[in-house]
Amino acid sequence: MGFIANWLDRWSERSSRGVARRSSRRSALTRIGKLMVGSAVALPVLPFDRTGQAFAAEATKRKQAKDDTACDYWRYCAQDGYLCSCCGGTVSTCPPGTEPSKVAWVGTCRNPEDGKDYLISYNDCCGKTACGRCMCNTSQGERPGYRLGLHNDVNWCMANDSSVFHCTTALIVGLPEGSS
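The chain above was modelled as a monomer; its predicted structure follows.
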């Protein structure tokens, strides 16, 4: 048994060293690359029917344009906070017992229904404890804290009498310059 094991070890070592002398890593990578390219060309490329995916994407876009209690609603592209539409208010009004923040951050969001970009003012509603429902943090276009008007990680209730945050609204304030 020991003789066979020693012979097998010597044979494996000689074979490995012979392969190492005759080839390099680069040549091995070249061969593998040629094999991959050759197999990609040789294998038939079949067409795929993607119409079902297109219909599903269109349905998702329609849903995004209409459901103001979902984080993927188009106005919430720069949202950071609880949605007022889930907390007793609407997308543009604060719930009873709260007041809108005197300062806000601004984002630009595209409405999928008309293809236009809109300026959205995100106003926190202040005066009650955090709603705790429908938390969204999409933060598209958010800038660092030194650009406060474009930074959404600030308690924007700081300018109000009560600095307690409850939820956030998303008001359309206009079309950006150059938008048609």
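The beta strands are 80-82, 99-100, 105-110, 117-126, 135-137, 165-174.
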